[in-house]
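Posting for a labmate who doesn't have an account.
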Amino acid sequence: MTIAEELRSRNFSELSGLILIFVEVPLLLRICPTSEKFDVFIRRFTTNYMRAIMYGLMSLIQWLSIIRKTTSLIAAAVLLLASAICYLIAGLKGQGFVGSKTLGGQGVAQMIV
């Protein structure tokens, strides 16, 4: 199924999962062929507040998708909501976002080259 077909079927779980992987593992932006627009979009989520908003919206989408019929997506909705709350608390406490070198944060470019 293509991304266009996924959007037409209103099944956003796979698309949100793809975005989540690229946000949480920045190394993928360096090794996967992606467009400049996609890279700029993903790089917007570098602060705790932006990540809280992203996780909150993804959680909301999952909650809305289980209104008609309760499925196992409830687990994803709960975990995404918990992540959103944690990022929001970190932002309110003034904690800076810390990236991991293991997953592609600062310093990985030097290791690849």
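Reply:
Got it, the structure tokens are right above this. Helices lie at 3-8, 13-24, 27-31, 36-43, 48-65, 73-92, 108-112.
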